[in-house]
């Protein structure tokens, strides 16, 4: 039993800045910006009764000061309980604490477990990732931490890797919820690497990330007095659907090593690549990571298995300091024992995943994607598509007369009023107004409405739903009754299609070769 010191240990007010929360009121932004110029106090508090600050692992240079504090609680305060749990007394099964078959599944699931996750689950995760990531050597369960979803992973990593006010580089457009996970939770900023739809220089595709652009964004952050601690990569990318080639991944990782940056690789869509020609490779498949101690890989079941409500995410990192610090935060972000058991059962069922689930899921995704792609082509709308994920990045710039974000919001509102829920580009920090993310995935029974159109009198908001039939199938619904989602898209755009000229020869048309 110990107590924290009475001295003030409240977190300092820090700046999230325009690169993180652009929509905050200006008065708040001014106050927070002023705080950014203050040097953060790096001194760790004394903890009476358990030792002094020298015990707080000063050599764990990969962690922020609060990360070292979090890890310290694991190393010291939790040590006794961990030792007890490894060989817990049981009057029936383990009276002498020596039997090897002491564990019973049901009781153990109802007790506190290793905060990294039950060993049986971490072993299954390691095997699962080894197989599907095609790692050159088996991945190890001691490098696995399980949390309640990808959001918690981002929040925990931001907290243990960065001081408040420091930043991650992140290419745009990117999944906008990361702003909440990183900025609002950990007071960590996002320094955007802005990418363009126009293909220039040595680029071969729209919105292409290059090392040169990373270097430029890093220099800009430094010029503004922002310390950058890491780089966030999403592969396959959301919302672009882009897939980084192994060569590109190596270049980004070498860049990060050169600047001693952590790299968080979010691979939450790795099993949702439905075009074989896309050539997806996990970062864990690379023969040699340039800086394995600063490379941290995320995956979750929310997308690939359509189980976002179950809240399961996993981190794989060879850095034991980072793994331990994140695991300590699992006190707030852990999974129940019952969920861990269910997840282990799912992940070990390789036959069902390989022979039933993935083939069927990929076929449905491809059919849905094909339907929406053909509809967009018929409307003359440019779009990007790489054969991965649940979405298409669509160029609606010609429907914005002045090309402003205000018009983008108005167009989004028109879609919403017609009960079509899309995501507008500003939410992904796209610097060009007029780009929208169309989601095309949904359950089959919601997609096929039968012989007659069936619109409820007060329908709820529709996602962009699509015909689930395979390519080449002549859907009886489509010729006479256009699919509800696309029908409503047509209705919205019909009222706006003549108000603006088409943009100059767009470079954002679907590329002819999807392999990189």
Automatic annotation (TrEMBL):
**Which residue stretches belong to region Disordered?**
494-516
- Locate the coiled-coil region(s) and give their ranges: none
What is the protein named? 1-aminocyclopropane-1-carboxylate synthase-like protein 1
Q: Which SUPFAM superfamilies match?
A: PLP-dependent transferases
Q: Which residues form the Aminotransferase class I/classII large domain?
A: 106-440
Similarity section: Belongs to the class-I pyridoxal-phosphate-dependent aminotransferase family.
Q: Composition bias, kind Low complexity: at what positions? A: 501-516
Per the UniProt record, the lineage of the source organism begins with: Eukaryota, Metazoa, Chordata, Craniata, Vertebrata
Q: Which UniProt keywords apply?
A: Pyridoxal phosphate
| Keyword check for ATP-binding | no
Instruction: State what this protein does.
Output: Does not catalyze the synthesis of 1-aminocyclopropane-1-carboxylate but is capable of catalyzing the deamination of L-vinylglycine.
| GO BP annotation list | amino acid metabolic process
Q: Which Gene3D superfamilies match?
A: Aspartate Aminotransferase, domain 1 (3.90.1150.10), Type I PLP-dependent aspartate aminotransferase-like (Major domain) (3.40.640.10)
What the entry lists under Pfam families is as follows:
Aminotran_1_2
Query: What is a single molecular function from GO for this protein?
Result: pyridoxal phosphate binding
């Amino acid at each position: 039993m110990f107590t924290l010191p009475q001295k003030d240990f409240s977190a300092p007010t820090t700046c999230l800045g325009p690169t993180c929360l652009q929509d905050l009121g200006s008065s708040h932004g001014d106050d927070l910006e002023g705080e950014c110029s203050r040097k953060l106090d790096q001194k760790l508090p004394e903890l009476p009764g358990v030792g002094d600050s020298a015990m707080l692992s000063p050599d764990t240079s990969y962690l922020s000061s609060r990360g070292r504090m979090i890890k310290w609680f694991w190393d010291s305060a939790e040590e006794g309980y961990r030792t007890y749990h490894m060989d817990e007394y049981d009057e029936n099964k383990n009276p002498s604490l020596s039997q090897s078959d002491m564990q019973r599944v049901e009781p153990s699931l109802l007790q506190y477990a290793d905060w990294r996750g039950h060993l049986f689950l971490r072993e299954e995760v390691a095997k699962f990732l080894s197989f599907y990531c095609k790692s050159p050597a088996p991945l190890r369960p001691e490098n696995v931490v399980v949390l309640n979803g990808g959001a918690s992973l981002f929040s925990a990593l931001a907290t243990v890797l960065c001081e408040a006010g420091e930043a991650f580089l992140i290419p745009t457009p990117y999944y906008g919820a990361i702003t909440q996970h990183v900025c609002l939770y950990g007071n960590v900023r996002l320094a955007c690497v802005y990418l363009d739809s126009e293909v220039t220089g040595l680029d071969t595709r729209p919105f292409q990330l290059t090392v040169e652009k990373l270097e430029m964004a890093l220099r800009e952050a430094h010029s503004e007095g922002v310390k950058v601690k890491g780089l966030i990569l999403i592969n396959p990318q959301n919302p672009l659907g882009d897939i980084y080639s192994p060569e590109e991944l190596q270049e980004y990782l070498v860049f990060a090593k050169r600047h001693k940056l952590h790299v968080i690789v979010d691979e939450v869509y790795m099993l949702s690549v439905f075009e074989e020609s896309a050539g997806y490779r996990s970062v864990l498949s690379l023969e040699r990571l340039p800086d394995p101690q600063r490379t941290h890989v995320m995956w979750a079941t929310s997308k690939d298995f359509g189980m976002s409500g179950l809240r399961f995410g996993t981190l794989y990192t060879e850095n034991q300091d980072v793994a331990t610090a994140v695991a300590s935060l699992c006190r707030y972000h852990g999974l129940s024992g019952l969920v861990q058991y269910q997840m282990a059962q799912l992940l070990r069922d390789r036959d069902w995943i390989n022979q039933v689930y993935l083939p069927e899921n990929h076929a449905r995704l491809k059919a849905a994607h094909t339907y929406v792609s053909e509809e967009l082509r018929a409307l003359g709308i440019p779009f990007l598509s790489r054969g991965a994920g649940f979405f298409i990045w669509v160029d609606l710039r010609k429907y914005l007369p002045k090309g402003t974000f205000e018009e983008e919001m108005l167009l989004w509102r028109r879609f919403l009023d017609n009960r079509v829920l899309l995501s507008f580009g500003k939410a992904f920090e796209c610097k060009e107004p007029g780009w929208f993310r169309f989601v095309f995935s949904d359950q089959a029974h919601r997609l096929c409405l039968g012989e007659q159109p069936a619109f409820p009198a007060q329908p709820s908001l529709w996602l962009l739903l699509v015909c689930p039939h395979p390519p080449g199938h002549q859907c009886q619904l489509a010729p006479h009754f256009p699919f509800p989602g696309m029908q409503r898209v047509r209705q919205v755009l019909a009222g706006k299609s003549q108000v603006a000229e088409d943009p100059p020869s767009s470079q954002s048309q679907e590329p002819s070769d999807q392999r990189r």
